[in-house]
Amino acid sequence: MPKIALIVLLCLSPCWPQVAKEANKDYQTPEGRRRVASTLDDPHRQEALKANELIARLGIKPSSVVADVGTGTGFMLPYFSEAVGSAGRVIAEDIQQDFLDKAAARIQSQHLSNVSTVLGGDKNPNLPEGQLDLVFMLDVYHHFDYPSDMLAHFSRALKAEGRLAVADYYRHRRGPQDGDMSGHIRADRDEVIREIESNGFRLESKSDNGSQQYLLIFAKK
Ligand SMILES: C[S@@+](CC[C@H](N)C(=O)[O-])C[C@H]1O[C@@H](n2cnc3c(N)ncnc32)[C@H](O)[C@@H]1O
Q1: What is the pTM of this model?
Q2: Of the residues 140, 149, 166, which should be mutated to test ligand 1's pocket, given the most ligand atoms within 8 Å of the CB?
Q3: Homologous superfamily assigned to 15-220
């Protein structure tokens, strides 16, 4: 290999696995994250998401242990808290402490006594090993810079019969008000399925989650 090509390759290689730079560009500053937080808590989003229907499709049994990975401001936490009941447990995980602080405020104000928060890293969600029945992500998978590392940790965190659920946006089905999101959403549904299946999971079901999102549920291989 010519020397110059080798130098270019060596300079590029540390950056290569970081695949979600565009999706994460608004998350780099506290102001950016404040703006994102207000969109996450927007009542229109909450109407569009139909959280009760989503929870029903996840088939959560009472006393389950669920991780809401990339919980943001914790929009899904009251729904998970109710679904797992007082004998269950919900772990609200995120890599941004300011989002987790907002989730913690929600946990406190809504008395969600079975929910706790965990600060993760971009390659490691810091979840307990072998204890989870469900790892859930809403509008999060396309933000992963290191999806293979995250999936390996999810596999270790899940019980043998545990499941992984991904609700995310279709790359080409955003509404006209959202403009072209193909830079923000790096991979479409079928590519996400292939990626997750090649990292230790088997697709169990796929369906639409509203008009713009899909829901994928995987078992461990
Ligand atoms: C669009 S927000 C969605 C938040 C929440 N799931 C919701 O739907 O309201 C994306 C979230 O993913 C988080 N995130 C990005 N990369 C992550 C990673 N590697 N591990 C965990 N969370 C991550 C962000 O900090 C942010 O809270």
Answers
A1: 0.91
A2: 140
A3: Vaccinia Virus protein VP39 (3.40.50.150)
